[in-house]
Design brief:
InterPro entries: BBE, FAD-bd_PCMH-like_sf, FAD-bd_PCMH_sub1, Oxid_FAD_bind_N
Number of domains: 3
Bound molecules: 2-acetamido-2-deoxy-beta-D-glucopyranose
Radius of gyration: 25 Å
GO biological process, one term: cannabinoid biosynthetic process
CATH architecture of the largest domain: 3-Layer(aba) Sandwich
Cofactor: FAD
Number of helices: 11
Strand order of the largest sheet: 8-5-7-6-10-11-9
Organism: Arachis hypogaea (Peanut)
Structural class: alpha+beta
Family: Belongs to the oxygen-dependent FAD-linked oxidoreductase family.
Mean pLDDT: 87
Helix content: 25-40%
Number of strands: 11
CATH topology of the largest domain: Vanillyl-alcohol Oxidase, Chain A, domain 3
Shape: globular
Length: 421
């Protein structure tokens, strides 16, 4: 007992020493970084920099944070947040970060599913493009939304898989599978399949199209709503008919929670037995607040060659699945439990999805599929483990570009493109 007490006392002291050493090293880095920044452009930058002692630091950090899993007290925080208005201020921030050995995290209107746009394991600075917000919208298209709900619809989902990627180019018919509370059996979970479509055109043109290619859906005029394109964005956010268009200008966040997401690319229909096994998993308690956003490919997506842009999932792909599991409770324990359940779901899906390697979509960032070394460089071979999943044959070309524009690999993070040595 006594010995254990002594050794833990020692550990505490050593820890404290290490900590204070690091803290003062950080203080200096932090001071030098700011000096560098202000030296180069004090007037324009001083009003755009938030240090930890600034009373607005937390609210700026939280502003576009979308996953509470990365907002704990022990989540690494940036030394400084810079909110540039001009390219020269971005340049100064990059140069000073490099000079003082700080990493950079960059965020804009979107967000990274694994928090990589605002968290780093190494001392870092955030460049937050919160002030860059010029948008021009010039679209007059009318669109029709379609929504059909169904419960226990294995056959419909099965059929959808082979139909959705071959529909008219003006129609995208997606599928949302959710685990929700049963309205019939209180206290039980149920799987809901929601067919959700967007058609660029009127209802009269849409109905015969769907009648011909997917009659089983039983789409009727009452299932459709005609609206303008801009209204359809309101529809996607769930506010259509409830709030005026101006709500799209509101930048405050609503209902952030914690989540873990993964993705799959599907090239062959999943058999009915496979879907039924998926439903069984979705009925498990841990599946509460699970969402599968299933998005068809085909159409314009297949016409673009794989080598045209980095995104490689093209002809031959039927659809993509985004799995996301959400929770409200705080803490590591619940997070780990739910993440483990997601890994179980992912492993169940393996036989049914793309292979060699199993593909993924980079915007649904998933660090489970492979990561770079946190300290130092990462070999091309190691990075290829995750790189080929997101980029397929384009990964090598991305590494060539990276080697050209950032030979010292200054811009790096858990899944940054590696340099070729
Ligand atoms: C400093 O910022 C101003 C605009 O605020 C810009 O015109 C000027 O070029 C910048 N100077 C340097 C050295 O970056
Ligand atoms: C916090 O930082 C902002 C942006 O640099 C600045 O305008 C503001 O005066 C600072 N507030 C305090 C209390 O230091
Ligand atoms: C589902 O049921 C649980 C427990 O009965 C409840 O806490 C939760 O709020 C319900 N969710 C919805 C969306 O109704
Ligand atoms: C913006 O949305 C937030 C959160 O829903 C709300 O509290 C706020 O009143 C809204 N602001 C405006 C100007 O509508
Ligand atoms: C990483 O690679 C670059 C380019 O080859 C090299 O300049 C740098 O020293 C390497 N860094 C480390 C920590 O090995
Ligand atoms: C771009 C630029 O002007 N960089 C300079 C910023 O200030 C430091 C000194 O603090 C110089 O070393 C940089 O060259
Ligand atoms: C394939 C399948 O599971 N069909 C079922 C869908 O739901 C209806 C009504 O709940 C059942 O009668 C079917 O057997």
């Amino acid at each position: 007992m006594k010995r254990a007490g002594v050794s833990s006392h020692l550990i505490a002291i050593i820890y404290a020493l290490l900590f204070s050493f690091n803290a003062s090293a950080f203080d200096d880095t932090h001071k030098n970084f700011l000096q560098c920044l202000y030296h180069n452009n004090s007037t324009s930058l001083s009003k755009l920099v938030y240090t930890k002692t600034n009373s607005s630091y937390s609210s700026i950090l939280q502003f576009s944070l979308q996953n509470l899993r990365f907002s704990y007290n022990n989540t690494p925080k940036p030394l400084v947040i810079v909110t540039p208005l001009q390219p020269s201020q971005v340049q100064a921030t990059v140069i000073c970060s490099q000079l003082h050995g700080l990493q950079i995290r960059i965020r804009s209107g979107g967000h990274d599913y694994e928090g990589l746009s605002y968290v780093s394991q190494l001392p870092f600075v955030i460049i937050d493009f919160i002030n860059y917000r010029k948008i021009q919208v010039d679209v007059e298209n009318r669109a029709a939304w379609v929504q059909v709900g169904a419960t226990n619809a294995t056959k419909l989902v099965h059929k959808w898989q082979s139909v959705a990627s071959k529909l008219d180019n003006n129609l995208v018919l997606g599928l949302l599978l959710q685990t929700v509370n049963s309205s019939i059996n209180k206290g039980e979970l149920t799987v809901q399949a929601l067919f959700n479509g967007l058609f660029l055109g009127g209802v009269d043109k849409l109905l015969p199209l769907v009648q011909e290619s997917f009659p089983e859906l039983g789409l009727a005029k009452e299932d459709c709503t005609e609206m303008s394109w801009i209204e359809s964005t309101l529809y996607s956010s769930g506010s259509y008919g409830q709030q005026p268009l101006e709500v799209l200008l509101n930048r405050s966040q609503v209902n952030t929670d914690s989540f873990k997401a993964k993705s799959d690319i599907i090239t062959d229909p999943i058999p009915e037995s496979g879907l039924e096994g998926l439903w069984r998993l979705m009925f498990e308690d841990e599946a509460k607040d699970l969402e599968l956003v299933i998005f068809p490919f085909g159409g314009r997506m297949s016409e673009i060659p794989e080598s045209e842009i980095p995104f490689p999932h093209r002809a031959g792909v039927l659809y993509q699945i985004q799995y996301s599991l959400h929770w409200q409770q705080k803490g590591e324990e619940v997070a780990q439990r739910r993440i483990n359940w997601m890994r179980k779901l992912y492993s169940y899906m393996e036989p049914f999805v793309s292979k060699s390697p199993r593909k993924a979509y980079i915007n649904y960032r998933d660090l489970d599929i492979g990561v770079n070394n946190i300290h130092g460089n990462t070999s091309y071979e190691q990075a290829s483990i995750w790189g080929h999943k997101y980029f397929n044959n384009n990964f090598k070309r991305l590494a060539y570009v990276k080697t050209k524009v950032d030979p010292l690999n200054f811009f790096r993070f858990e899944q940054s493109i590696p340099t070729l040595v």
